[in-house]
């Protein structure tokens, strides 16, 4: 019975230490992340995901490890966030950006699906059709370009079907078609 209780509860002093370390690591991570560039999850590049997962692993491992101090975890987390910030800045250099970010892939051009690029992006025709429906297109026919972006999103630009007298409008040539109305609440 003692063996089961020890397996479930462990050392009571260790539990208190883990609670204190977990709380301080969470607060430390919150403060450190406050100084990083803000992005939404939808805008995460692959290296952003790596940094987020690694930060979670550092905090999670150090919180319950009796052989890892708060200071060691804080140094590791700080180094990770500095490396992430440095990589984010290096992306501003075009030659380095090409190495870090995957190239854009055209999935649809003038209504024609590029099956080779679709396959290279790890997408199926069904995946592309679902994205087209989300953008209001029943099929690829009305699409000028569908681009698989570096961050994994798919941009869909519709064909410009307006008459020639609309060509002077400020939005002509952008491939966005007619502007959508904003719904008011």
TrEMBL record:
<dbReference type="InterPro" id="IPR007353">
    <property type="entry name" value="DUF421"/>
</dbReference>
<feature type="transmembrane region" description="Helical">
    <location>
        <begin position="47"/>
        <end position="64"/>
    </location>
</feature>
<feature type="domain" description="YetF C-terminal">
    <location>
        <begin position="96"/>
        <end position="163"/>
    </location>
</feature>
<dbReference type="InterPro" id="IPR023090">
    <property type="entry name" value="UPF0702_alpha/beta_dom_sf"/>
</dbReference>
<keyword id="KW-1133">Transmembrane helix</keyword>
<keyword id="KW-1003">Cell membrane</keyword>
<protein>
    <recommendedName>
        <fullName>YetF C-terminal domain-containing protein</fullName>
    </recommendedName>
</protein>
<feature type="transmembrane region" description="Helical">
    <location>
        <begin position="70"/>
        <end position="88"/>
    </location>
</feature>
<keyword id="KW-0472">Membrane</keyword>
<keyword id="KW-0812">Transmembrane</keyword>
<feature type="region of interest" description="Disordered">
    <location>
        <begin position="160"/>
        <end position="185"/>
    </location>
</feature>
<dbReference type="GO" id="GO:0005886">
    <property type="term" value="C:plasma membrane"/>
</dbReference>
<dbReference type="Pfam" id="PF04239">
    <property type="entry name" value="DUF421"/>
</dbReference>
<feature type="transmembrane region" description="Helical">
    <location>
        <begin position="15"/>
        <end position="35"/>
    </location>
</feature>
<comment type="similarity">
    <text>Belongs to the UPF0702 family.</text>
</comment>
